[in-house]
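Q: What residues go here?
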């Protein structure tokens, strides 16, 4: 076990731990990290890394930057101020953290065992694990199997594949499982990139001479011969179960998809199990992949395991296992479920963030310490965890600039937004914005249609919700203050135009938009109008709250405007309070 900072690299089981929780890491990024960790404090050139990890295969140096970027996200290391991996411009990398060999647990690490973390990864996935084991048994009997594990980012696809690996390691000494990872951009250029990575592990493990006919040298001859590549995979699956896992197949070259389809269609016996993971609504997911999978499903030549978000109860179980206590702090489970949407990655990251920021702390004697929250969660300002914000930013950056602007405009409302509001913020035609939202829903899954609004002018406007609250927050915060203000102003003005003559019915929403835009005079004016409407409905308490809010907003104004406004608001507020006292007096007499 290699220990650095709050991380532990388990080289025996090829996994990474952070504060007792296992972090999903594909085989090649793990290999890069392992080489860096095992050679700390010195320059490791690009050529040295490439020779160590791809000794007999030409690989573009760009792949190293891709893997290091992924590692920095996982390790929460800032390239501008590196604590772990330092880039030496045009030369290579250096692992600058102190590394310790430690077979046991760090003294300052939380009391989470490895088994607890493994279980945490697989909360509420018992049915899928059993199905995967059954499929592996069929493959062991010579009936080749193909499984697509699908679901959104962070839902647990890699964890499920790793669970099968752990099961096979403990129940079958002869089974072999290898992983290949499709890399965005690179895999689309190199036909069998993920397959070469996976088979490279396989041949390197069975033959020390990497350039022998049975070693990695053989792979070079297979890259342009798909039929022989299929034959090679089947050879590996003749005597023992051979499991090939290809991750993020939405980025795979079409040739890889065709080869997987060919393997599934062959009728000869083979102890072969191919597992492919992908995000079905990722922008890069090819129509060809969807059609291949659908055709194989119809022919009963593959299985799909679609992973759904965790339920409230399952997420509570996850937190119980993570915190190692049956009774959770009040509000914690409901808060994390609402904020994460049941996504395990989001939930774990949010919990880690709350611990790091000391929103929840260990309390009591060491042997009886429990986790407690420092205050009511509803009063705390808990931002998007930094590592999640980076992942979401990367996902957003893959979109076209106009698509990004549409989502950013939608974020000005709330987690749910009507198309007309996004169009108003952009000063664009509602019809074109609606078409773009529809395309974004079908292709990315970042937003979902939730219904429609009937507007006063007789038209209808669809409204959408963001898949996760985190997406909305990141999209909102990535805009400049000036651009947000302009968008809020346009939405407020469009509300007034849509409800002309009936502005009082939406005065509160208009005031919220003006306040978000920083236009204090219009905010105060609208709140006072809203208060008058409340008075007309005899809602005196509501009117008082609105006027008190107007007073607070008026404090942002300079003199003499503030003095005049405050005097008028206080006069109106005094009249409202008199009405409240009179109403309460009548109620007391009536009782």
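A:
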């Amino acid at each position: 076990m290699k220990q650095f900072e709050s991380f532990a690299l388990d080289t025996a089981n090829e996994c990474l731990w952070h504060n007792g929780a296992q972090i999903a890491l594909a085989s090649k990024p793990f290999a890069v990290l392992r080489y860096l960790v095992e050679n700390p404090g010195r320059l490791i050139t690009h050529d040295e890394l490439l020779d160590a990890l791809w000794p007999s295969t030409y690989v573009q140096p760009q792949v190293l930057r891709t893997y290091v970027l992924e590692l920095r996200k996982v390790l929460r290391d800032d390239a501008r101020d590196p604590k772990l991996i330092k880039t030496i411009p045009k030369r290579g990398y250096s692992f600058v953290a102190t590394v310790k060999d430690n077979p046991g647990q760090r003294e300052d690490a939380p009391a989470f065992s490895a088994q607890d973390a493994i279980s945490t990864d697989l909360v509420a996935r018992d049915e899928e694990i059993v199905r995967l084991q059954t499929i592996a048994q069929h493959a062991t009997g010579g009936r080749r199997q193909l499984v697509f594990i699908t679901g959104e980012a962070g839902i647990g696809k890699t964890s499920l594949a790793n669970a099968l690996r752990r099961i096979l390691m403990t129940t079958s000494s002869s089974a072999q499982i290898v992983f290949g990872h499709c890399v965005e951009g690179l895999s689309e250029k190199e036909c069998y990139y993920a397959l070469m990575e996976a088979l490279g592990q396989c041949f390197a493990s069975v033959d020390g001479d990497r350039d022998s006919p049975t070693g990695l040298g053989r792979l070079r001859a297979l890259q342009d011969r798909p039929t022989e590549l299929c034959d090679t995979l089947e050879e590996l699956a003749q005597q023992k179960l051979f499991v090939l896992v290809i991750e993020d197949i939405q980025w795979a070259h079409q040739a890889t998809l065709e080869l997987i389809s060919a393997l599934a269609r062959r009728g000869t016996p083979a102890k072969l199990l191919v597992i492919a993971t992908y995000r079905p609504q990722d922008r890069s997911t090819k129509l060809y992949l969807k059609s291949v999978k659908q055709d194989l499903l119809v022919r009963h030549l593959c299985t799909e395991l679609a992973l759904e978000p965790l339920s409230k109860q399952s997420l509570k179980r996850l937190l119980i296992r993570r915190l190692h206590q049956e009774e959770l702090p009040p509000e914690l489970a409901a808060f994390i479920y609402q904020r994460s949407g049941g996504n395990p990655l989001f939930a774990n990251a949010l919990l880690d963030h709350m611990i790091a920021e000391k929103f929840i702390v260990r309390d009591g004697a060491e042997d009886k310490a429990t986790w407690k929250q420092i205050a009511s969660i509803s009063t705390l300002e808990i931002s998007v965890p930094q590592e999640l914000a980076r992942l979401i930013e990367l996902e957003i950056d893959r979109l076209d600039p106009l698509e990004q602007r549409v989502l950013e405009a939608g974020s000005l409302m709330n987690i749910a937004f009507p198309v007309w509001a996004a169009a108003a913020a952009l000063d664009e035609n509602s019809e074109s914005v609606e078409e773009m939202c529809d395309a974004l829903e079908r292709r990315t899954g970042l937003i979902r249609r939730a219904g429609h609004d009937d507007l006063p002018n007789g038209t209808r406007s669809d409204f959408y919700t963001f898949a996760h609250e985190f997406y909305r927050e990141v999209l909102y915060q990535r805009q400049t203050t000036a651009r947000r203000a302009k968008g809020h102003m346009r939405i407020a003005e469009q509300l007034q135009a849509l409800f002309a003559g009936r502005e009082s019915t939406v005065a509160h929403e208009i005031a919220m938009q003006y306040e978000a835009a920083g236009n204090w005079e219009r905010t105060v004016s609208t709140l006072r109008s809203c208060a008058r409407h409340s008075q007309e409905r005899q809602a005196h308490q509501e009117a008082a709250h609105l006027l008190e809010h107007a007073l607070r907003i008026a404090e942002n104004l300079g003199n003499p405007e503030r003095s005049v406004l405050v005097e008028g608001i206080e006069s109106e507020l005094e009249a409202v309070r008199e009405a409240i006292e009179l109403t309460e007096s009548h109620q007391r007499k009536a009782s």
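A: Context that may help when evaluating the design: The CA atoms of residues 226 and 259 lie 7 Å apart. The longest strand covers residues 447-454.
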